[in-house]
Amino acid sequence: MYEKLKGIVLNTIRYSDKHNIVHIYTDGRGLMSFAVPLGKTPTARMRNALLMPLSLIDLEASTRSGRELAILREVRRNYPLASIYSDPVKNAIALFISELLAHVIQEPEGNQYLFDYIKQAVQLLEQLPQQVANFHICFLYHLGAHLGIQPNLESYRKGYWFDMTGGVFVPSPVRGHAMLQPDEARVIHLLSRMTFSNMAVFRFNREQRNRMLDLIIGYYRLHNAAIGTLRSPDILKQLFV
Asked: Residue 86 and residue 12: Cα distance in Å, rounded?
């Protein structure tokens, strides 16, 4: 049985001399893994071009239960991403987002809200002419709400610490928990006001932005053991002044 789905490509892994495994997050079936034949024919090259990280695609896939690797029968571009793949800065952001999503998304069930958030963010990154230095920070912060790990903002008070383990602001450190001191806790609260519409007005230098990236990734790791070593953040840290 084949089903028509919309998908967001997360990554491609070499599986054998004849196949790659492509992980695609779909609107109706959640995370799916496909065995995709390698090849040097024009058809194979065109298919591989459609399966680059964060590609937005329409696909027909086998949905037979009990099969670990699905069969990809047809794939078509849903939304062109010329800017993301030609602009080195946007491309680095896209590679980071796709790498992180490949770690945090494990559910084999559809989540339309999460799918739409990621899809709309990718489309916005493609459309933005410039001023994307804060894009990955904004994306990560609001992604937490869709993953159920958004900080409890109602607990914030000036001078409070942020309990990374509990996801709440507290008046004093909690023994045995990962904590942020009040000055950095204030920044976490500040990020809650950042949106894709206003992110350009938030002025951070490279050191501040890189520290925020490390903190958010650290927070994700505390709440998701599947996040291992990420290679792409080191590239991002060299891009913005």
From this structure: 19
61-95 pLDDT, tens digit per residue, is 887 766 678 888 889 999 999 999 999 999 999 99
Tokens encoding 83: 């800017």
The number of angstroms, rounded, from the C-alpha of 180 to the middle of its chain's C-alpha atoms is: 24
Could you write out the DSSP letters of every residue in 38-67? ---SHHHHHHHHHTSTT-EEEEEEE--TT-
Of residues 22, 42, 33, 17, the one with CA closest to residue 67: 33
| Predicted confidence (pLDDT) per residue in 177-201, tens digit | 999 999 999 999 999 999 999 999 9
User: Model confidence over 94-113: pLDDT tens digits?
Assistant: 999 999 999 999 888 889 99
30-37 and 72-79: which strand pairing? unpaired
144 and 225 in a single domain? The answer is: yes
Q: Which tokens go with 238?
A: 């060299």
Q: What are 110-144's pLDDT values in tens digits?
A: 899 999 999 999 999 999 987 899 999 999 999 99
Contacts of 176 (CB under 8 A, 6+ apart): 165
Q: Do 48 and 126 fall into the same domain?
A: no
User: Do the domain assignments include residue 166?
Assistant: no
DSSP state of 101: H
Map residue 168 onto helix, strand or coil.
strand
**What's this model's pTM, rounded to 2 decimal places?**
0.92
Residue 14 pLDDT > 90: no
Question: Residue 216: which H helix or E strand, with range?
Answer: helix 206-223
Measured between alpha carbons, how far is 146 from 133 in angstroms, rounded to an integer?
A: 22
Give the tokens for residue 131: 């001023």
Query: How many domains, the chain?
Result: 2
